[in-house]
Inverse folding.
């Protein structure tokens, strides 16, 4: 599963980053972003499906793969998101 945020709808409240800080983080612009590169998931560093070319600041296209172990947290964040702007897709 993959996750992305529609930044146009993000209210910047930070709820997603509180619920699933391993996946979501707040940037200086006050909006939430998704983490993807494997250094964000050191416990899963053997999983080479992560994009290794992207450093800090989210992903190249704003879409991140969700580690299976974090899927429940991401779903909860999407449900709690007041902007309804967290999208989970296959
Ligand atoms: S919970 Fe939704 S509205 Fe709030 S910061 Fe995260 S993505 Fe933005």
């Amino acid at each position: 599963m993959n996750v992305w945020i529609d930044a146009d709808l993000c209210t910047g409240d930070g709820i997603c980053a509180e619920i699933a800080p391993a996946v979501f983080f707040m940037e200086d612009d006050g909006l939430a972003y998704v983490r993807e590169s494997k250094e964000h998931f050191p416990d899963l560093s053997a999983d080479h499906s992560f994009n290794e070319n992207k450093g800090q600041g989210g992903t190249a296209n704003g879409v991140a793969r969700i580690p299976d172990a974090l899927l429940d947290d991401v779903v909860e964040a999407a449900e709690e998101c007041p902007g309804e702007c967290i999208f989970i897709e296959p």
